[in-house]
Amino acid sequence: MIPFNRILLCYDATPEGQLALRAGAVLAQQLHAETHLLSVLDTTHWSSGYDVLSATRFDADDEFARETLDEGIARLHTWGVDAMGHHAAGSAIDEISRLASQLKVDLIVIGHHPHGFFARWLSGENHALLLDRVSCGVLFEVSR
User: Residues in domain UspA (predicted)?
Assistant: First the structure.
């Protein structure tokens, strides 16, 4: 079995993210892996305007992403997993691949909700881009 010594868990508080967090926690415990948790404020759907409402919304969304990170760290601690938290803003695919490379992780655990091609295209989800940008294993926890 390939050793997974360093794991990056991606968490966004969705049901899929919660499943991925739990699966990642179990893996981290069983493998005694160094564990990192990433919460990304995905700004790819933002307008390019810089008005007051955009700034206010960004601040509120950024605060929610930070609270999500704190919640994820707390859940991991209750499950007996110590993790280092990371927060980023930008494209989720860019930020996940950047941090995975920077930390030299062996495995990324991420939640996924199965959609049809059209729904993924509309929402901007493209996990194939992530797979093309990382040089480690990726585990998708799929909800039904």
Answer: 4-139
The two tokens of residue 56 are 């206010």
Domains, the chain, in order of start with CATH, read 6-81+93-142 (3.40.50.620)
As averages over each run of 10 residues, the pLDDT of the chain (144 residues) reads 86 85 94 94 63 57 83 96 93 91 94 56 61 85 70
Which run of H or E residues covers position 84?
strand 83-90
pTM given for the model: 0.80
CB atoms near residue 2 (< 10 Å): 8
Structural tokens at position 103: 């930390």
Separation between Cα atoms, residue 17 and residue 39, nearest integer Å: 10
